[in-house]
Amino acid sequence: MGLEEVKNIAAKCVHFGMCKIDFLGTGVCPSGIKHKYASYYPQGGMEIVNALANKLIPVTERLIDIARSCTLCGICDKQCYFVTELRPMKVMEALKEHVEAALQRNEPIESPAEDQVLRDLRGIVGEEWATNDPAILVTYSRDIGPVDPATLVSYSVDMRPVSYSGDISPCHLRHMPGYVVMPESTREVAEIIKAANRHKMPFVPRGTGQNSHGLTLGEGIIIDLSRMKTLEVDPKNWTATVGAGVTSFEMQKEANKHRMRASVAEPAACVCANMVMTGIYGTLCHAYGYAGDNYVDAEIVAFDGRIFRTNDTDAPNVLKYSLPAPGTFAPLPGICTQITVRLYPIVEDEEGILVPFSDLHEALEMMREIARSRLGLVDSILGLEYFAPFISPTFQASEELRRFFTEEMEVKYLLMVVGDKYTVRTIKEMADVTVDQEMVRTIMLGLPKFYSDEGMELLCQLSGAEKPYKLLFKEETRPLVEMSLSPSPENIAAVVDEDLQDFFKKLYSKPEMTDLVWLNMYRILSSRIGRNYAYAPSLAFVSLDNLDKVVEICDMLKSIGDKYDLRSGLGVITPLDFGKRAQMEYIYYFDQTNNQERENAANALIESMNKVNAFTQEMKAPALVSIVFQGLCRSENLLYT
Predict the structure, then answer these.
(1) What is the DSSP letter of 329?
(2) Which of 51, 129, 499, 526 is within CB 3.0–4.6 Å of 138 for a Cys-Cys bond?
(3) Between 494 and 209, whose confidence is greater?
(4) Rounded Cα distance, 275 and 291, in Å
(5) pLDDT at 506
(6) Which domain range does residue 619 map to?
(7) 528 and 383 co-located in one domain
(8) Residues 248, 296: one domain?
(9) What digits encode the pLDDT tens for the residues 157-206?
């Protein structure tokens, strides 16, 4: 199989980084674990094939090692199919064939020369952990975002539309670095910064590289922090101290051994980077707070190489929030190499519950009431465009589920609540109809029947004056629903590729795969947001004092998506500070391999951020883009103006 036959698969990698964590119990790519560089993971292999197919890199010594180090063990197929339905094994087979064919043809093998910058970097971290080989560099040169950071941040002062020429390849926003270096300690990070300054060389820190707006790209030195894996839980003090290479999933897994949890973001996102960038926002912010609420101390290397801790008496003030000048980001305080975060105890009787709504205003009213009543750990509204892919094993299944929910059942939004038995009891008293944990399991494991003829027949049997979902989810109809759907791991496995069905049966036999509490803790399903499309999120803080205005913002964002012929929908709304404000995420979806859709997504994102900024100023809330690099600040500085 040649590169041309697999380049479309490679180009669709969404760079979510899930191949770097063991989120399914399969283990992780052996080559990536051993060699650490992004190039050795499946995500890197996809990017290398993408670059080779576009004739961007030659065959190098490191490329040969990357290809030969892949054992074709198949772990990547299971992980990537779960998230995006892609099959990286085909890509890796093609890469291995391409390299071996080049060697058989005696093609020249390039070996980039070592210059003084590289010698200095290797003197700090060792020869293995600094390189200028194109096969490594190219995997740090691109992300899926439709717009680069300079354009993104200047939206408020320059509304010129983005335009991509028709001959631009899928590598259109590529910024090839000169070097990649992987430090293992804070001291090494400090020495790298000093060396970069001596050579007047720009540098950019990088965690997993999950960012979608070019903020981990650069043309100088990429400082990959993935080797910094310090992770220590102090259960008596309710804290965890983590290095810059530790992901949310890894920290949560370690904390859970002590029956504790942290407020985390996406599972493959590095905790330190996520905290510094935007303060970590997610569904658990409802109970655990935001930004400065969730960390105790942080170790940072300033851009002159000086090391300080945020609790030092002479440390720079990272707790303040400063509105950046138009067209700029706030200054980054430095590179966070270690952070101590707060942990929270897990209560034994926690469970999740969903409340379906056809009207956003009604959902917002209940969400706000729950927040102001201080109920539960999670209190978030999810749009169906966002939710359907999360619980569906394939894109086609998610499309059918979304259609069935919105068109047949008249459900457009789900309010998700996680809490103890008292919280769940209260939610059932507040809502006309709820979907409890057992019914969630029934729907997930009976999914193929839910949106098929069995589901339609079930609705016909329940026809009445009420909305269909109110009939379907009544307590007295539960036996009929369970009988019709026959929920089982075999059901959900039946819709995936045949060679993966046994794996999916075993996977969905695990109780946690249908447990709303576990899924909110580890957030593995949210990685499916990019299953069949790349995504461009428009983010905002909104006031919950005027719910009509929140609905108006959502309608406005949808109209922008319609204007640019993009699929779009509400992602999630989560209240903060007992309902004073909420974080809102609205998603534009686009085909990252299509120039026109990339252009449309870029312009939709810029226009939406400009208009959202006007709304948030009216609401006296900060625009979320202004918070970038200020995630360590006190949450009060964002919530009170």
Answers:
(1) P
(2) 51
(3) 494
(4) 7
(5) 97
(6) 533-641
(7) yes
(8) yes
(9) 344 454 443 333 334 567 899 999 999 999 999 999 999 999 999 999 99
Region 565-589: what's the mean pLDDT?
A: 94
Q: Is 216 domain-assigned?
A: no
Q: How far is CA 93 from the centre of its chain?
A: 28
Q: Tens digits of per-residue pLDDT, 388-419?
A: 999 999 999 999 999 989 988 899 999 999 99
Residue 166 DSSP SS3: coil
Q: How far is CA 487 from CA 50, 149, 356, 398, 437, in A?
A: 40, 46, 21, 17, 14
Compute the distance between CA of residue 432 and CA of residue 257 in angstroms, rounded to an integer.
37
Q: Which amino acid is at 443?
A: I
Tokens (6 digits) for 394: 């394939």
- 124 lies in a domain? no
Residues 396 and 406 in one domain: yes
Clarify whether residues 617 and 545 are in a common domain.
Answer: yes
| Cβ atoms of residues 337 and 230 within 8 Å | no
Q: Long-range contacts of range 550-557, CB-CB < 8 Å, 24 or more positions apart?
A: 550/360, 550/364, 550/582, 550/584, 551/360, 551/361, 551/364, 552/615, 553/584, 553/612, 553/615, 554/360, 554/584, 554/586, 556/608, 556/611, 556/615, 557/586, 557/608, 557/612
Taking CA atoms, 149 is separated from 218, 477, 633, in Å, by: 11, 52, 22
Local structure of 86: helix, strand or coil: coil
68: left (phi over 0), alpha (psi -120 to 50) or beta: alpha
Number of domains observed in the structure of the chain: 4
Same domain, 458 and 473: yes
Does residue 125 form part of some domain?
Answer: no
**Overall pTM > 0.90:** yes
When computed from its CA atoms, the radius of gyration of the chain, rounded to whole angstroms, is 24
Final residue belonging to a domain, choices 322, 345, 368: 345
Beta-carbon contacts of residue 464 (< 8 Å; ≥ 6 apart): 471
Pair (390, 473) in one structural domain: yes
